[in-house]
Amino acid sequence: MEKKTKIIVADDMEINRILLTEMFGDDYEVLEAKDGKEVITYLEQEKYEIGVILLDVYMPNMGGFDVLDYMKEKSILEKIPVIVVTVSNAEETALKAYDYKVAEIVIKPFTTQIVRRRVNNIVQFYHNKQMLELYIMEEMEKQKPPYRALLELNHQLDAQVKSVKDACEKEQSEFSEQIKSLLK
Amino acid sequence: MREEFKEDLLAAGVNLPDAVERCCGKEELFERLLKIYFKNPNEMTELAEKAEGKHYEELFSQAHALKGAAGGIGLTKLYQSLCKLVESLRSADYELIDEEAQEVINSFNTIGNIVQRYSNE
Fold this sequence. Notes:
heterodimer, A: 184 residues, alpha/beta, 5 helices, B: 121 residues, 7 helices
């Protein structure tokens, strides 16, 4: 059986967590967090192997922006997509979230089908991106042997040029010694 | 869900088809979430105390959280009342706070009483 991608649903309101878990429970393994601290615990536990984080902004103890600060510091914001879930009429919040380069912003109350599509698209997009990066790495790895051989050949040529040069210098030195002795 | 329960919710301004749709089309999930939403019997007493005591920051936090969840499960009328209260608090316009808080309390209690009644049966 194929292993389900893990997603984190972070919201201090139990209702919202249940709703989102119900929405995504069939397709993903949902990890519920009621504040930012729990999000970070999950991130560390799972070694950052998370498909997406649905992140509420206002939570007690540690809010959504604190989580984004942590992810920025750890340089994982480009690897793990974050969907910020916020209430309507909060343009400031949305703009601040975009400054962190979050993948998407969802305004509450949301339409379940649209959110489901967005989450699926983002998870798929990041998965494809990772696969592409992996492919590029593999291709670069494949390119390494000829590159190394060229480097080796270059070293050999350098060594040969140096030995010829040394021989020439030696010969020249011997020749000048001979001339000196003849002139005496 | 019982038909009478549904009818009472509709009469209290709950957009039932939308609410159930928001709950992945599952009536039993909507019912479960309603019970969770209204499980704290002191919710509105706390809100009223914060409004009376002019503890606007705390009032904002509570109203903001209630608003998000109300919208999420389709409690339209209550959600709209909470929107007005939250926006006034956000813009520090306290002139109508008492009336807006009272509107929230009325709307919350109307639905809460229905939920309570059918939960006890």
